[in-house]
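Hi W.,

Here's what went into the run:
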Amino acid sequence: MSAVLESPGTPPPAPGPEGPGAAPSATGRRGVLAVLVLLALLALTTLASLMWGARDIAPGEVWAALWSPVDGDNDHLVVRDLRVPRTLIGLVGGAALGVAGALMQGVTRNPIADPGLLGINSGASLAVIVAISGLGVGSVGGYLWFAFLGAAVAAVVVYGAASMGWEGVTPVKLALVGAAFTATATSIITVVLLTDQRTLGEYRFWQVGSLANRPLDVLVTVLPFVAAGLALSFAAGRVLNALALGDDVARGLGQDVARGRLLVVAAVVLLCGSAVSMAGPIAFVGLVVPHLARVVVGPDYRWIVVLSMLLGPLLLLVADVAGRLVARPGEVEAGLVVAVIGAPVLLAIVRRAKGVAS
Amino acid sequence: MTTVLSPMRAGEPGGVEADREDTARRSVRGLRRRRLLRTLVVVASLLGAVLALSLTALMLGDYRLTLGQVLAAVAGDDAPPAGFIVGELRLPRLQLGLLVGVAFGLAGALFQSVLRNPLASPDIIGISQGASAAAVAALLLAGMGGWPVTFSALAGGLSVGLLLYAVAWRGGMTGHRFVLSGIGVAYLCTSVVGYLLTRSELNAAADALVWMTGSLGQATPELVATLSLALWVLVPLVALVSRRLRLLLLGDEQAAALGVRPERVRAVVVLLGVALACVATAAAGPVAFVALVSAPIARRLAGHGSTALLPAALVGAALVVGADVVAQHLVSPDLSLPVGVVTGVIGGPYLIWLMATGRARTA
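Here's what came out:
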């Protein structure tokens, strides 16, 4: 049993011998092709997200609602006030979660890293709840900072605790510490909410993770931080490629390992805090998306980050639209649909990956 | 013992050798006696702790009762006010707590010892969450109550168990693969519970919390009767299988040589563990971490190398009743928390500490 966990997660495999500097052209071609295909799919999904729901609206009407809205037209109202905000939030939130997952898998060298499974999202949630209920912070601009703080604390605690003790950071330790952190945070959230029956009612809906009924100004407030996080993660691709070879080799390649890690963690905190502030604690997007990206473009993190940025919103929007269609006229929250898709993927990863377990 | 003695045997006169063997035998016997004594002391002190916590739970509340009043009421004196308060309000809650604690403690001990993995407890690998999801579905979608809910929970927990068996079985369930898969399944089941709760007409938030964190607030005499009947069936079965389980801990080959069929015993023990976790969850929701921590605490008290089933059950009961006392009275006088919140706040950091210090591997 002790030998079981000696190698911490297999992916990401090392990049080719030519190093992170020279991407093989085959990967480049596949990457560009994949980006184009994903952009097309994303456009289709966005259209579907605007069209389908409790009532279906024809593409022509959607177009008219966007560019020449008629006051008092019900369909136009639905598109502009309900579907556009949730679609945009899905796009931005999905990109944030997908990239955050890719960064986390890279920096922990661990195939099951995900903002939800490792407790980052619940740390952010706890901080938000405390800010709203305990300190009376009302605006998104106010509690966003608490979300960042909570995500940062969670990242430090979970990664720190998992890297202590035997065998360093292993998937099972990360997942367990993440689960334990989530359980603790959830319990404290419950305590805070029990003093506040009204919020408890809303929390039931928020904690599932949903794109519905979020005002658009949430997105406006959060957008600069997501943009900063995404910009950092483009820079992080190189760092992650080097880290994938192990700390010693990375140092040998001239990489400042500690600063690189800090950069990546800062990006993760920005992205997760923003996503939680917008959509609640959604798990599994960050888990599934980088694995899909890896299947398409291989182990180069520069490409994985780019593809995750497109696959994340695709997965989250598809989940949201599917949730609207399966339970008409009601809906199933996107967070639940993603969990239903994501849990089997996790099982498959655990089953196949060599380093994860015996 | 023999390995220590064997090098000295060569060339020594027979009389001395026999003498040594006799000493060895006596010391083994002494060890056994000490171990038995230790187990007795541990069980007795745990019983004392459970009793003390129970009396505290009966005394505390909006209307404080004296020890004398409580004892009289428990003895059957239904004079007001103590008779009503104890008999109708506090006793069912206490009984539910005791039964749930025993069931979770035993379930955890069975799982952890038969799977030889201190992390493979039903609340980590998703059995409790699966039972919770199925129970909530039965309650809210089918409008069931009582026994059907218990059976539904049982079905849910068993399905999770079978799923994990199918997905993660590769030459045994000892690997961490099993735990990791379980965490994924647990996450999925929790989301299903969350979804069902958002769909329900369940306006009383407290009811929803039962199924999110585990609570004893819904205790009624009927619920207690259901759970205790289930335990009357399951606990004797555990007692029946416990000797074979102990032999199994020697290793499969040794156990087989002693006439135990390892695979069959393992399957029976896992089934009993699933059933215990499920009936407890059906009554009180997934009370976090009780199953995980009870057996390690019990084993540490009782000395390593034993299955410590009885101590684990008592530790479980003490934990649930103690946590409920804290949740109801100690956090804030006018705020009654669900018991799962307290076990979560204590158990989560405990698990993180186990991971950080590396004790989970040897526990």
